[in-house]
Each structure stands twice: as structure tokens, then as C-alpha cells.
Amino acid sequence: MASRVSSLENSAINLSVFREDARRELFGILDGLRDKERSNLSLVLDPELSGLVAQVLVEGAGVLKDHGIVQFKELTVDIGPGPPSGCDVMVFIVPLAGKVKVRFHLYYAPKRTLACDEMLKKAGVMGSLVIGEFPMDLVPVEEDILSLELSDGFNDLFVHNDRSSLHTVAGSVNKLQSLFGLIPNVKYKGSMSQVVVESMALFQKKRQAEGHGVGSVEPEIDTLILLDRTVDLVSPLVTPFTYEGLLDEIIGITNGVVKVDAELVEDDSDKAKKQPAAAGLVPVNLNSTDALYAEVRDYHTERLGAHLQNKAREIRERYEEFRKKNASISEIRDFVKRIPGLKQSYAALQLHINFAE
């Protein structure tokens, strides 16, 4: 079954501009290095960025070959074989206070931090690196969801008293307003949200003083509501009973992707040929591009099983109805046109039945 990122076709506003912006930034960095007489590049990604980059590269990682990438891997303790001879090595990381021992080109996402610079200085490698930023902030993971994926934001704020994530949030909202107009109604609750609103206001005043308008286009967003996580600390702790919630609780959904055993996504054709499924885990995108998932993601788990059974019965009945009737040429032609859609529906149904079991 084909696994695709969200198409964003039904977004209330044009969220694809964020995807295009991130692509342009990434390809610009890669092409910029190739301009410096570097034809081959090795790209190493922080695992926390892999899922987000996949949401941006809708064609798949293969498109990176057009920009000089000959090796593409995740940053791990045992990173495996080195790059081919003559390659520049580019490492994209989320700036966290951990072990940072890399060489060559280092790009922080979404921004460079003093803490990581200090660690590089202590390690004695600061002068050996070309350091830059990959400003990928808001990434559309669904047609109604933009995410910064600041998984450590709460910990940074309340354990380490590090407020840098608030400036990232404020910057992303200002970017949103520059694209879709100044949001007329801004509501907030909580001291951290207040800091974000104040930071947004300072940015707007600075831009106006420089003679630049903020959100000069007609506003497409009516209201922005900012909430501190501390406003509701209970909801993340309750047991989920929706299909999507249970998938996240048991398997884990990251950047709109679950990683499951390959046999769960094995086609019937492979089973019929007795072809063994590939070993290990395979990624499966979960978003509204899958019409069945969009329909059942919020179903209570007790309702899900019966609904999937009804869907399976409907598909079987469509095939049986055609087989039993004495169809005309035009009816046969119409049915043949529907076969790809029926196969896709059956593949999606089979996948979610496997997940539910």
C-alpha cells in the first residue's frame, strides 16, 4: 500500500507554502555547497529531524540526489561506514545539550544556540566546522495542523528555565502573519503565552520602525489562541479510547508516521505468492490522504471493529454484484475504471484491520 504525506489540498489556508519554503531553504543550502566546487555531499540527519524532512520531501529522499547527495543517513552512536571519498559531510541537528562531536558542515534546525556553540568550543572543534542554520520551523503534518515539533519545550521551560523555545514560537507566528495577514484577535492564557504575545508585539514594532509592514495582506486568519501547557496538565495523562489515540499510545505516532512490522503492511498478493515480508519496521503515514483513516481516526475503539467489518462487506458486495449480473459493455467499462479505487480501498481497509488487531 502506498504511503503518502498529507496532500494539504483541503487546507483552509495555503499550508503548502511552508512545505515549499522548507524545501527551498534545504535545497539552497545543498546547492550552495556544490557551488563551492563540491559535487558530492553526504547528508547526516538528527533522528528528530528525519520525520519532519520526510513531510517536506513529498517525492521521497530520492530527490536529494538532484542536489548532490550521494549518502543519506541518520546520526547515531554507530553511524556506520563513512562517506565516499571526496564528499563534504553535512550534519543537521536539533540543538540540544548533549554530546556534539561532528566535523565538516554543521547546520542547526531551526536555529543556532549559544549553548551548543560553547560545547563545540570545549570539544576543540569549533574552528574545524562551517556552521549554519536550517530555519525549518512550522511544518504541515496535516491539512489542519502546523507543528514546530518542540518535544523538549516543556522540559526546557520548567526544568532548565530556558525560554528560547518561546522565541521560536513567536517567530513562527510572525511568519504566519507575514504570509496570511495580521491576525486581528489574539487571545492567550498563561505566563508563557504572554511572553510569546509580547515578543510578537516587539517584533512588529521593530519591523514598522524599519519601514516594513507585518502581515500587509488581507488577514485570512480571524483569531489566534495561545495556551500554556500548564493550563491543562491532565489531558495528556488520560487513557485514549479513539483509534488514533490508541495507535499513538501503543505504537507511537511521530510526525504523522507509525513504524510497524513489515508483515502488517504486506499485500495479499505477496501472501499468495508466499513472499516473506521484509524484516524490521517500516514507516506508514497516517493522515487525511487516506480517506478511511480520516473517517475512523476519531472513532471510539468499541465502534471501530464493527465499522471496518461493514466496510469489508461493502467492498465484497460490489465485486459480487458485478459478477452475478449480466453486464453490458458500458457497465463493464465503468466497473474496470472503478477497480483501482476498490483495490486502494481494500488495501487501506486491510491495513487498518491489521492495526486494530
UniProtKB/TrEMBL annotation:
Q: Record's superkingdom? A: Eukaryota
Q: Give the GO terms filed under biological process for this record.
A: vesicle-mediated transport
Under the heading InterPro entries, the entry gives: Sec-1-like_dom1, Sec1-like, Sec1-like_dom2, Sec1-like_sf
Q: Which family does it belong to?
A: Belongs to the STXBP/unc-18/SEC1 family.
Q: What is this protein called?
A: Uncharacterized protein
Q: What is the lineage of its organism?
A: Eukaryota, Sar, Stramenopiles, Oomycota, Saprolegniomycetes
